[in-house]
Amino acid sequence: MLTYPITLKRDTNGTLLVTFPDVPEAITVGETEEDAREQALEALEAALAFYFAQKTPIPWPSRPKRGQATITLSTP
């Protein structure tokens, strides 16, 4: 399993903006924290699929800062 740190930031319209410091292509929003996390997993999977399609090395997750939220990607 790979666990990527995420940044959750309340946007001006009240939604939560989710970004991945290690995967800049993975950006999404959610109405609630639960929704944002679900959307984040989908965004991460899509970004990594793009890396695979382009034959680009997958960025390894950095170590999360204390208290930083994370998304875990299950690997087969």
UniProtKB/TrEMBL annotation:
It comes from the Bacteria. Pfam families: HicB_lk_antitox. Residues 4-62 form the HicB-like antitoxin of toxin-antitoxin system domain. InterPro entries: HicB-like, TTHA1013/TTHA0281-like. This is Transcriptional regulator.
